[in-house]
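Quarterly update from the structural biology core.
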Amino acid sequence: MKYSTIKVNGLDVFYRESGSEDKPDFVLLHGFPTASHMFRNLIPMLEKNFHVIAPDFIGFGQSAAPEHTQFEYTFANLTKYVDDFLTAMKIDKFYLYVFDYGAPIGFNLAAKYPERILGIVSQNGNIYQEGLGSKWAGRKTYWDNPTKELRESYKSAFQPETIKGQYLGGEKEGSVSPDGYTLDIHYTELPDYAERQSDLIFDYQSNVRNYPKYQKYVRDYQPEIIAAWGKNDPSFVYQGAQAFAKDDTNAEVHLLDGGHFVLESHWQEIGQLILDRWA
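Predicted structure, tokenized:
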């Protein structure tokens, strides 16, 4: 495993890299509130068969985190930085793993460069209305009426107990290591964290508006998709995984007995699904 940074449009992007460069590229895109460390168990399973690259988005993990007044924290802008990161790394065709926030970023890239996508793993990475859990009704109210009070109320998403609950909810007791959520909680304590993440919570509405574009890409190009989903996730419910199958004859759906961060408890199963299909 190699840990490094590269300048992208003047900002440091941290990434993890493993495997031989003569193997197919596999790009892993994390979600909220985590970073590339969420793939710490999966990467060793994939490195013999793939050249694995896992960047931290701008504002996350070990990558640069400009203040929200100095950087546009939108999913379109995060996508631009991932796109330019792939260019800087000379990555052309690649497999893609998307989770949570990584899904709209990844599907933005797939819709823009369909010929470059070799296959997609969507792990609780939603692109369908039916995959939105009940909490999203409240978010829509906020998007339609973005008061300062509502913005402040959604900062509860950054509280330690909320983050811990995201990891442990829907999982069997003792099945999830504390490593991931402990590090994520540390990142919430960094300067300006709540403000830049609040900008992204507000901008998530752009992803929902883009769902039809992502679905059209899936229908038109029929990419090979593994939808590996924690079926107990209250945020992106399992119907979002099942929806891939209605649009894509090359999609396989696996509902795993875990929650939002099912990779923490089921990394071996998900890794084997990838190897069985593409190695």
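The chain has one domain: 2-278.
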